[in-house]
Structure formats: structure tokens, C-alpha cells
Design goal:
alpha/beta; Ubiquitin-like (UB roll); globular; 678 residues
Length: 678
């Protein structure tokens, strides 16, 4: 019996909404938009469900989704309505798998993708460019020359005359001219009054020609993450970042985390091709957007450098990542690549180049190489720990003498996924939390407002957006604050006995929860609640991260590190203090723990603007020692120990540096007694 027949039999169907991952059971015939809103799914609409605005467009996924236990198909939705047909006639035809949520009913089990343009509160992709001195020595350079007219006395080709001019004026050796460039030479010479600008790659190859003087050489540094894609458009003459853009990775509709996407490839014969097409289309749209922002054209872009985790790296290059789904997690290619952008469907200058940084190991990718290039631990005596936290944490430890790397499966909890009120970093998401240790009352701050909830005008200031959920940085802070206030024990259990003290601690089945935010009574929004399962999800994520770090420390034979750098958007916005309280990272003087910003993107920019950095990072990567967490005997041991807050293997040495509440001393003492008893 298929899922539609099952639905008819029991009167309930299952619907999962991506990218939030929220799911629920609904009666057959429930309007899709009603189901979405009952789950708190962010679905836009301004026409009151009349099918006029088209902002509630959603995509029905097709195929098996083992993670969700669902077989989804377009036939599990009600047939196309007259309103949708009229909308298509007025606005242009909808793709076959796209429906208007306000005029679609659920008839069977489905997985529904809500694209960014249909989300009322679009994600804030926090990957702004950072300023830093970079040695400017680009691989692609422009040369202007004036080419003499051919003559009967000197019967040579215009290509030869151009080459002679480049040699005479710029000392360039014999350069190759690709077949795609040759047809533009005659017209460029004619319209430029025999003056042309030539783009030369690595002093070997002409990759572009323009009539007259062309002075807008552009390059783009791209970080393809599993959740977001960030790009920085740079002027290759000056090295200046002239535009920055970021978007959600469209592959999220195939799976929230990396292994879900590999599973999709395993289940769907054309899965890899679908994801490759999706990310390449995304990159082309991003490049077009960047060019338009600076009033340029996409053909001004001559070069791209790209960093990505191994699975994203393989998919961009059109390589099936299926080998990365199981031991021995073998990369198909780990070396750096330089190739024509056109060969991988990237629409820049016809002969423009794409350089990908090298990968390090099966789950330690070119993005980790970018972080290493940006932070340069291989040139320092002090022992550095670099952590790039995403759905898969990439960890590097070492100095000029020795470097080690591993990855650890933290999952998407740090980004708000698998959390009951969790969401990505959008306007309205709680990002900061403080809890009074005496009253247990919270004080919150949301993205998009400078006010804290304890301030009198908070609700008025956020009237347009409201509090929509809690993002990764807020999750870390609220659980750390709950621990410091005594609401949560070192074992991660919510103390139900405190329900007599505050109504914010509420029974939920056999466990307890903490009500972080209650909307005004006249508002339609939902409460934001921290459940026992939410705490468990963070414990699992932080234990995996800490266990990976401990493996590297063991391998290096050290018990402390000199400095910790937290890379990535998550690392840039979490409170280092609260991360230390929870035990995400090992003990280290707090003044030596700092965010590294978007270090992977910075590494991509360095490789774009300084050609000499490319062989440098390629050499460093060959000497990095890989540690495989999946097969390490000690990983499970450290993982279990690290489930506690902060963790069972190290003393609470740093908690006293951040004490703001008297209860901390009591909690810390109890933790010490517990370990001594063991």
C-alpha cells in the first residue's frame, strides 16, 4: 500500500518542511499553508491565500527520504487548481514540481522545500568580507599594447604581431591563444584602433581580449558551505573587495546535512547530477548578482578561487561523492585544481579559470585548507587549535613543527536544526540570552533589534517581526545560562524541582522544559521553549566536537593549547565564554580564545590575490597528519565523557573567570565532588 493509501486508511499523513526540518501529522486534505503555519514554518504570503501574490511557492520533493521515513511524490498533493492555472497564465508557467501553498492540499506523505524567496524571514548569511593586508601578486594580469598593421613586407599573422608587441613592451614570452579567444582578435584590433588589452594567466596563456584600454579585471573568492554559499568580488588591480553576497545552498532540499545528501545520492541514480546542477546554477546566479551590484558584466570576472568541504568540492567539480559516505572515506581527488570555468558550467570570461584549494582528508576539505592558509599555524611557534564549526566540524591542531587535522560529526544542531524552536540566523531569531540566577527570568536579544527583552520598548520595537525562534548562538547561550543558573545539571538534565520556583519550568511528558519566551497574549506567535531533547542534541554535538579535539591533543601529546581560533559564521557569533562553560572547547585562557571570522573565505581571497600562496598551501597540506575519528578507539570514550557540562575530563578552571552569578560556585563545586566520587 503506498503512502497515499495509508493516509486514506488512517486519516493522517506526514509532512516534512525543508530547510527547517519541521514535521507533523495532518488529516488528509489539510491545506499546505495551514500545515506549514501550524508548525511555525516560515512561509510568505501577502494576498490572504487568494493565489495572487505567488509568494507561497513551494517545491514538492520526489523520491525516498529514509531519514524522514517518507516516500514523497507530487501525486501526494491535490491536483493543480484553476487559481494556480490562472496565476501561471498571468505570471508565467510554474515549474512542474512547484505549487502555490495556499491552493494545495496534502493528500499523502510529502517532503516540501520552502525556497529562500518564499521565506518571510530570509536567512542572514553572515559572511561579510574582512579587511586584511594581502600580498598582491595575482595569477591573471592585464597588459595594454598597440599592435602594428600587417604589411606586405612583413607577412605575418595578427596573432604573431600581438605576441611581438607583448614581448617588446612587456617582456612576455610566447603565449598560447585558446581557440575561443582567437575569433575576438580581429574585431578588437579594429574597434580599438589597433590598441588592445590582453588578460594573461600565469604569464603563459591569453584568456581574454578587449578593444582599447580595459581596466576592470575581477576575481571572485567563493566558500561553498553545506548551508550557505558566500562570494567576495575583488578588483584584481587593487585587491579591494568591491562586493559581497551570500545565499542559502540550494542543495539543502536534498538533505539538511552532508551525509543526508550522500544518502540521497545512494538512493537516487541521478542524485549527484541533480545536486551538481543545483550548486552550479546557484554559483552562476551569485556571480551575476555580484556583477550587477558593481554595474559590471559577468565576463569581467577572469578568475575564481573556491574552497569547500569535500562533498561540496566534489559536487561542484561534477564528481560523485558516494565514496565519502562510508569507510575508508576516500577522496576521488585531493590535489589543488586549475581548470576552465566553462568546463564546469560556470559563466564567467570564456577562458576564465577556477582554482580549487586542495582537500586534506575524506572529511577535511579545501575549506580547512583555506582556514590554514588564513591563520598560518605552520609559521608559528605557539600551539594553535583551529576549529571550523558547521554541520561537520573541521579541526586543525599544531604549529611550525607539526600539524594534525580531523573532522567530527557535530550535525546541524549548532545551526538551529533538530532544535524544537531552532532556526537559522534570520531576523527575529534569538541570538543572545541571559538568565537571572535568583528569579530564573530570561533576558533575550533577537537579530534585527538592539533592545533586550528586559527593556520596556522591546515588544513594540519587534512588532513587525516578533520572536520567531532561536539560532545557533542563542542555543549555546541559553543552555550555558541554564547550567550556570542551576536549571540544568552537569549531566544535562532540567531540574523539575524548580517548577515550584518559576512557571517557566514546565512538565513536558516525562521530562521538563524551560519557557524562554512567551509572546504577548494578543499575538499569534508561538512560545520559544527549550526542551530536554534540545539539550541532548547540543550535548551530542558538543561531545563530538570535543572528542575530536581530544584525539588530536592525544596524538600530539599535549594537554593544553596556547590559542584557540573559532572559524566560520557560527564561530564568529557565539559567545566564547558560553562555549567554554558548556565545554565545546578545551580549557584555555579566555583572552587567547577568539573568533577567526570567515577564515575559509579569507584563505580563498589570499589564494585569489596572491598566486604564490597556492604552491605554499599545497606544500603544507602534504605534510598534515590525518586522524580518522570514525576508526579511533578513544573517540567513543571521549565522546561519552564530553556529554557532561562542561566535560568530565578537565577541571572547571575557567568557569571562575566568567562567574556572574553566585550559583556558579555551587554548581562548580558539585561538579568537582561528582568527579572526585568517581
Amino acid at each position: 500500500m503506498d503512502s497515499t493509501a495509508d493516509a486514506e486508511a488512517n486519516g493522517q499523513i506526514q509532512a516534512v518542511f525543508l530547510p527547517s526540518g519541521r514535521r507533523g501529522s495532518f488529516p488528509v486534505g489539510t491545506p499546505l499553508v495551514t500545515a506549514a503555519r501550524s508548525l511555525g514554518v516560515d512561509l510568505d504570503s501577502v494576498c490572504g491565500g487568494r493565489g495572487l501574490c505567488g509568494r507561497c511557492q513551494v517545491r514538492c520533493m520526489t523520491g525516498a527520504f529514509p531519514k524522514h521515513g517518507i516516500q514523497s511524490d507530487q501525486s501526494h498533493l491535490s491536483p493543480l487548481t484553476a487559481t494556480e492555472i490562472k496565476y501561471s497564465q498571468r505570471k508565467g508557467p510554474l515549474p512542474d514540481d512547484v505549487r502555490l501553498g495556499c491552493h494545495t492540499e496534502l493528500m499523502g506523505d510529502v517532503v516540501i522545500d520552502v525556497p529562500p524567496e518564499s521565506q518571510l524571514h530570509r536567512q542572514i548569511v553572515r559572511k561579510e568580507a574582512e579587511y586584511r593586508d594581502i600580498h598582491l601578486d595575482t595569477a591573471t594580469r592585464l597588459y595594454y599594447v598597440e599592435v602594428p598593421e600587417p604589411s606586405l613586407e612583413q607577412a605575418i599573422s595578427e596573432q604573431a604581431l600581438l605576441q611581438q608587441a607583448l614581448t617588446d613592451e612587456w617582456g612576455l614570452p610566447s603565449l598560447s591563444m585558446p581557440c575561443s579567444v582567437a575569433p575576438t582578435l580581429q574585431a578588437a584590433l579594429a574597434s580599438g584602433d589597433r590598441g588592445v588589452t590582453v588578460a594573461v594567466f600565469q604569464s603563459k596563456e591569453m584568456i581574454g581580449l578587449w578593444p582599447g584600454l580595459f581596466d576592470r579585471p575581477r576575481g571572485v573568492a567563493i566558500d561553498v558551505g553545506s548551508t550557505t554559499v558566500a562570494a567576495h568580488l575583488c578588483d584584481l588591480n587593487t585587491g579591494e573587495v568591491i562586493a559581497t553576497a551570500g545565499v542559502m545552498n540550494p542543495q539543502i532540499r536534498f538533505g539538511e546535512d552532508l551525509m543526508s545528501r550522500v544518502s540521497y545520492v545512494m538512493m537516487e541514480p541521478e542524485g549527484a547530477e541533480q545536486m551538481t546542477a543545483a550548486i552550479r546554477e546557484c554559483l552562476n546566479e551569485l556571480l551575476q548578482s555580484l556583477s550587477q551590484e558593481v554595474a559590471g558584466v559577468i565576463s569581467d570576472i577572469l578568475e575564481i578561487t573556491l574552497v569547500a568541504n569535500p562533498i561540496m568540492h566534489h559536487l561542484v567539480l561534477g564528481i560523485n561523492p558516494i565514496n565519502l559516505g562510508g569507510a575508508p572515506f576516500a577522496l576521488t581527488i585531493d590535489s589543488a585544481c586549475t581548470l576552465r570555468a566553462a568546463d564546469i558550467g560556470i559563466n564567467i570570461q570564456a577562458e576564465g579559470k577556477v582554482y580549487t584549494l586542495p582537500c586534506i582528508a575524506g572529511h577535511v576539505g579545501a575549506d580547512a585548507a583555506g582556514v590554514i592558509l588564513a591563520e598560518q599555524p605552520y609559521e608559528q611557534e605557539e600551539l594553535s587549535l583551529l576549529v571550523d564549526v558547521g554541520t561537520n566540524a573541521e579541526i586543525v591542531l599544531g604549529n611550525s613543527k607539526r600539524l594534525l587535522a580531523c573532522s567530527s560529526p557535530t550535525g546541524p544542531a549548532f545551526e538551529g536544526a533538530q532544535i524544537s524552536s531552532g532556526q537559522r540566523a534570520t531576523v527575529g531569531a534569538i541570538e543572545r540570552v541571559r538568565i537571572d540566577p535568583d528569579t530564573l527570568e530570561p533576558n533575550i536579544k533577537i537579530i534585527g533589534s538592539e533592545l533586550w527583552s528586559a527593556e520596556p520598548d522591546f515588544e513594540l520595537a519587534i512588532a513587525d517581526t516578533g520572536v520567531t525562534g532561536i539560532c545557533g548562538s542563542g542555543i549555546i547561550e541559553v543552555i550555558a545560562e541554564m547550567f550556570l543558573a542551576g536549571i540544568v545539571s552537569a549531566d544535562g538534565v532540567i531540574n523539575g524541582a524548580l517548577a515550584d520556583k518559576t512557571p517557566r519550568i514546565r512538565q513536558q511528558g516525562r521530562t521538563w522544559c524551560y519557557v524562554l519566551y512567551t509572546p504577548p497574549q494578543d499575538g499569534p506567535r508561538r512560545e520559544v521553549i527549550i526542551t530536554q531533547n534540545d539539550i541532548r542534541q547540543i550535548q551530542l554535538a558538543k561531545a563530538a566536537l570535543y572528542a575530536g579535539i581530544k584525539l588530536l591533543m592525544d596524538e600530539l601529546g599535549v594537554t593544553t593549547v596556547d590559542r584557540i581560533r573559532l572559524a566560520g559564521a557560527f564561530g564568529s557569533h557565539i559567545s566564547v565564554t558560553h562555549a567554554m562553560v558548556l565545554g565545546l572547547i578545551p580549557d584555555c585562557p579566555l583572552e587567547n580564545v577568539s573568533p577567526a571570522g570567515n577564515a575559509a573565505s579569507m584563505g580563498a581571497r589570499i589564494a585569489l590575490l596572491d598566486e604564490t600562496a597556492r604552491p605554499a598551501i599545497e606544500r603544507v597540506v602534504t605534510h598534515i597528519e590525518r586522524v580518522e575519528t570514525a576508526t579511533a578507539d578513544a573517540f567513543q570514550h571521549y565522546f561519552v565523557e564530553a556529554m557532561a557540562f562542561p566535560h568530565n575530563s578537565d577541571p572547571f578552571t575557567n568557569l571562575f573567570e566568567v562567574v556572574r552569578q553566585p550559583v556558579v560556585r555551587e554548581v562548580a563545586s558539585a561538579g568537582k565532588r561528582r568527579r572526585r566520587a568517581k
